Amino acid sequence: MTLAVGSRPTLVRQVIDQLREQVASGQWPVGARIPTEPRLVEALGVGRNTVREAVRALVHAGVLECRQGSGTYVISSDEMSGAVTRRLAAARTAEAVEVRRAFEVEAARLAALRRTKKDLAALDGALADREAAWRSGRVSAFVEADAALHIVIVAAAHNAMLAELYASFDAAMRATIAEGVGGELHPDRYVDHTRLVDAIRAGDPDRAAAEAGAFLEV
């Protein structure tokens, strides 16, 4: 993976192409956290600033996203999906909620039809994590746990294109969750997702779709 020595602009372009290939090949799938900067420097054999510029370019393109205190994640498989991400980031909350509804209602319906035992175990774990995050009283923890549950539901739909499109919507989705709960976790803002998971477990697509859409009215 070490790159040939060349001029700085050329090296940056080579690193961008190498990182893009890691994403396109599926080695770093959408939703994955990429290696840390020191590990990339070691693997590529280039300077820290070169790696930093290449990562910054892919963040600007909407392929990667830096999350404070967590790392850098793949949010789309290419620049076209990244353009979708940037457009959604600029959307009004009502528009973003409508897009969430379009994705999540169909995902819940498909999940009820296609979920496996492994999916159900993942759903139970994600639901338990969401409940624990709510009890913790920390907004950031709840937003992450709520988002994680919805990602698991989409995964249970077993539609690769839907999963990729939903991943490109990740930042906007999290923003709608954060806005929905506000600055503090209050009981009157709590939305129970147990019935949604139960409908998926029961294999009832109509009920799962209805439950998924019920808390996304605009």
UniProtKB/TrEMBL annotation:
It holds the Pfam family GntR. The keyword Ligase does not apply. InterPro entries: GntR_C, TF_FadR/GntR_C, Tscrpt_reg_HTH_GntR, WH-like_DNA-bd_sf, WH_DNA-bd_sf. Keywords: DNA-binding, Transcription, Transcription regulation. SMART domains: FCD (SM00895), HTH_GNTR (SM00345). PROSITE patterns: HTH_GNTR (PS50949). GO terms for molecular function: DNA binding; DNA-binding transcription factor activity. Residues 9-77 form the HTH gntR-type domain. This is GntR family transcriptional regulator.
